[in-house]
Structures are given as C-alpha cells and as structure tokens.
Amino acid sequence: MSGTDSGTLIHRFLHWERTQPDAVYLPEPTPDGRVVNHTWKEVGDEARRMAAWLRSLQLPPRSAISIVGKNGAHWITADLAIWLAGHVSVPIYPTISADTAKYVFEHCDVRVVFVGKLDGKTDGWSEISKVLPPHARLVGLPMSPPVLRALPWSDIVADVAPLQDVYLPSPNDLATIIYTSGSTGQPKGVMHSFGTIFAYATQSGIFCGFTPEDRVLSYLPLAHTAERSFVEANSLRHGFRVFFNDSLATFAQDLQRARPTVFISMPRLWTKFYQSVCAKLPEDQQALLHTSAPRPVRSSRKF
C-alpha cells in the first residue's frame, strides 16, 4: 500500500499527480493499432481543464453528470474532471435501452453528458441519443463517434486553462450514482460517497497488497460497480497502471500487452480460460486441472 489512509480518491490522485507525474497511468490502444501512453501529469492537466469548463457552466453544486461509452483513458479522465469540479458522476451502460436511459437521465436530472468510445454494433447509442435531455450539454470524448450538438473534448481542453482551486471532497460527500442495468425493472440508483469508495480501495489494497508497480486490464464495463471499484478506485488509491481492452477481437493482444499482475473476471470468462487450457492438453492430463470460485488473482506468469 502507499501513502496514508486519510482523504479521498481525489486526494490520492493529487498525490500521484505530484509525486509521479511522468509515470504512465493510462496506456490506451487506438483503432489504428497504436498505443497512447497518458501520464499522471497529462491526465491531471486534461481533467483540470475540463473541470474548469464544467465550473464555467455555473451548474448547481453536486449536479449529476453522465458518462456513456466504452472503457478508455478519457472515461476515467472525465470522471476525475467531474469530481474536481465538485459534481456527481453518473455512468451509463452504452448497451442499455432508450427507455432505461431516459429514466436515468430524468431521475437524477443529468446536466451534462460525456459521450465516449462506441462500437456501433452492440451499443444502443442510436436509440439513447434520441432521449438525451434537451437542456443537457454534450461533450464528445476522443475516439467518440460524431455526436450532434456535442463539443469536442479536444477543443475544450485546448481553450480552457487548468482549474487550480479544485474541489476537495469530504468522505461524506456523494461521489457517484451507479444505476443497475434495468434488466429486472426500473434501474436502481446506488449512491456511493467518497468515504465508502475510499474505504473499499484501502481494504482491497490490504488484501491484494497493491503497489504502484501493479498493472491491471480494464475490460468489464466501468458503468458497473465491480470494474469501477476494483479498477478505477484501486488505481487512484494505490497509483498503479490501467490498460484497456479495445474490443473482443483484440482481447488476447491487449491482455499480452498489459501483462496484468492482478485480474478480475466473471465465471464465464474463467470457464473459457479453463476450456482453452484443457483443449491444449492430452485427455489423460485434463483431469489434473480444476476450477475454483472466481476471485481476484495475482498472476505470477507473464502473459
């Protein structure tokens, strides 16, 4: 573990921005096969610039701001910008129905929507875009599709100076509202404070022994509490590097690039890993393998 046990994830982010500014925080694959390495300093600079723009909108304190899109470096950077400006982030699955999206937008009165990477195949953006709040400002993250009415992220950060008097939350302040997917009725919004998220990340670090040298691959939806907590919260708490999966087709390549020291998954993927290994072994050796309950696993081998 690193640092003290006091503060919030914002305090920890400012710590890493100050103490390891040139360390790579968010390496991200691009559609053309390149990898862009975003350092803590660069992430902080863009987050501060976007936070300054959000402040300029003069929204009510603790306004709900949504992020819709696939995992990526600017998903996390947008989340940080929302917090640094003193607002509440509301992530939304890009695969949800228009009715579900409309309910979430209205339920928490979303004022700004960040639109991130979308693959156009499995996401529901074409329908979600029809129910966007008419009063909401739209911002297109890098690698987002063309979005009507959206201001490009790159234009905003190029024109706005970084925010210096960033919002420093208390543990009791609301950080995010994470909605369920709506598969069992209307989505339920779970309110998470900065204190509860920080407590989880602190205890997770004790259990897993995280250090800034760790590496993790982000591929499950950041709109889900599991990925948001295990990947984003822990990376901010403990200062380690987050890699991203660009698509299902590039999963093996992205996994090899990341060489994760810790990995979280759902039972279905563990089963696929198991079956893949079994398929490469003679039948008489397959009985030597067995599976166990899925949990975070620290990896000792290089992918």
Protein architecture, described:
The structure is a single chain. The chain is globular. The chain contains 11 helices and 13 strands. It has 303 residues and is of the alpha/beta class. It has one domain: Rossmann fold. Helix 8 links the parallel strand 10 and strand 11.
What's the pLDDT, averaged over the residues?
88
As a whole number of angstroms, the C-alpha radius of gyration is 19 Å
Number of domains: 1
Q: Percent range for helical residues?
A: 25-40%
Number of helices: 11
- Anisotropy-based shape: globular
Content of β-strand = 15-25%
Order of strands, widest sheet: 4-3-5-6-7
Topology:
Blueprint: H1 9-19, E1 24-29, E2 35-39, H2 40-56, E3 64-68, H3 73-84, E4 88-92, H4 98-107, E5 110-115, H5 125-128, E6 137-140, E7 150-152, H6 153-159, E8 174-179, E9 189-193, H7 194-208, E10 215-218, H8 225-238, E11 241-244, H9 251-258, E12 262-263, H10 267-279, H11 283-286, E13 297-298
Parallel strand pairs: 3-4, 3-5, 5-6, 6-7, 10-11
Antiparallel strand pairs: 1-2, 8-9, 12-13
Helix pairs in contact: 1-2, 1-8, 2-3, 2-6, 7-8
InterPro entries: AMP-binding, AMP-binding_CS, AMP-dep_synth/lig_dom, ANL_N_sf
Keywords: ATP-binding, Nucleotide-binding
GO molecular function: ATP binding; long-chain fatty acid-CoA ligase activity
